[in-house]
Amino acid sequence: MVPVRTTKSLDELRRDIDAIDDRILELLNRRAGLAIDVGRVKAGQKRDFHSPSREREIYERLTRANPGPFPSEAIRGVYREIISASLSLEAPMKVAFLGPKATFTHLATMQHFGLSAEFVPQKSIPAVFEEVEKGRALYGVVPVENSTEGMVSHTLDMFMESDLKINAEVLLEVSHDLLSRTGRLEDVKKVYSHPQAIAQCRTWLDENLPGVPVVDVASTALAAQIVGDDYTAAAIASEFAASLYDLKVVRKRIEDQVNNFTRFLVIGKKMAEQGGDDKTSLMFSVKDEPGILYRMLEPFAKRGVSLSKIESRPLKKKAWEYIFFLDLTGHVTDPMVADAVQELKGYCQFVKILGSYPRAK
Ligand SMILES: O=C(O)C(=O)C[C@]1(C(=O)O)C=C[C@@H](O)C=C1
Predict the structure, then answer these.
(1) What CATH class is the domain 10-90?
(2) What is the ipTM of this complex?
(3) pLDDT for the residue 245
(4) Start-end of CATH 3.30.70.260 domains in the chain
């Protein structure tokens, strides 16, 4: 128990909180009014309404200035919603994501943009790219990598054809629940989920539901939808899916491995501005010759640019030729990174910068 340091009663303390909330509300509305004015100025100057670099500046300034005891980690979440709501007053922002509603991509999208953006579910990763390319959505969000299952090759392949840029990455801890209409384990005669989620819960399923058929479907959210109409089935999906599709949680956190993270990419038409703690993703292809990969990496090594990932994908047009995807620390406008990329271009058939964006914390 925290020692009591006040002589006020509970009622008095709550009255004090009410008075502060009234002031916060008044200030929120004054802030919203200013955001509307900012929106008018921007419209007059034909500038983008959404300004991620300004948002970052606000988060960082407030976190630095926070004297406590309000937790600094909470500032980002609170301000993300304030800014998301303010932006919706300037201009509605559409974000396409790999749906249906309640997928982990949907959760990552809400985590990144706040709840006041307009979220548009898409049936496939190519459909998310198309929404952004055609300008029907300002941004798109797609999964790219899971810490236990590896890369989402579909997303990497899209960058071969698309010129969209990676604007941000979002890291989300993926935790699976078993959901059903009744909430009772003994009623479960069939389980539905996405193959990756099923793989991540294999041991739990074998131990707790031996012999029960497990059916692959296109997403964890679709599994939750299906189970909404079937009292004898259960879905492996997020807790958020339970609230959205009116299901009960049979068991929480049934994944075999804790620390299961998925990385998502936010894609848009423009390159993100430099932010101070950025990373860059690029892809390149090379002729198949001895020592070529070593030479590819040398421009970065000799300038001290650290590489955090290298992936290869087959070039579909030609057998046994590969495209490499590289993640490195720094923004493409940093002189060291720019020089290394320039040198790389000298050895490659092609090099494409997929984006420079803030490193997820
Ligand atoms: O400063 C701006 O450019 C604004 O539009 C205001 C504001 C905010 O609420 O602070 C809202 C949205 C932008 O993405 C960044 C900041």
Answers:
(1) mainly alpha
(2) 0.98
(3) 94
(4) 273-358
- Spatial CB neighbours of 225, under 8 Å, sequence gap ≥ 6: 100, 245
Distance 64 CA to ligand 1 centre (A): 19
Q: Which CATH architecture has domain 94-174+261-265?
A: 3-Layer(aba) Sandwich (3.40)
Q: How confident is the model at residue 275 (pLDDT cuts 50, 70, 90)?
A: confident
3-state class of 130 per DSSP? helix
CATH 3.40.190.10 in the chain: give the residue spans.
94-174+261-265, 184-251
Q: What is the pLDDT of residue 114?
A: 96
Tokens representing residue 179 in the block: 């959901």
The predicted structure's pLDDT at residue 283: 95
Pocket of ligand 1 (CB under 6 A): 35, 38, 50-51, 54-55, 58, 83, 86-87, 90
Nearest-Å Rg of the Cα atoms of the chain is 24
Q: Give the DSSP H/E element, type plus range, for residue 127.
A: helix 125-133
| CA dist., res. 189 & res. 312, Å (int) | 41
CA distance 255 to 257: 6
Fold that domain 273-358 belongs to in CATH: Alpha-Beta Plaits (3.30.70)
Q: Which CATH superfamily is domain 184-251 in?
A: Periplasmic binding protein-like II (3.40.190.10)
Does the pLDDT at position 1 exceed 80?
no
> How many angstroms does the Cα of residue 113 sit away from the middle of ligand 1?
12
- What pLDDT band is residue 2 in, cutting at 50, 70 and 90? low
From CA 147, how far away is CA 116, in angstroms rounded? Answer: 29
Size of the chain in residues: 361
Is 262 catalytic? The answer is yes
Instruction: Output the furthest CA–CA distance in the chain (Å, rounded).
Output: 79
CB 202 within 8 A of CB 256: yes
Give tens-digit pLDDT for 134-169. 999 999 999 999 887 778 888 999 999 999 999 999
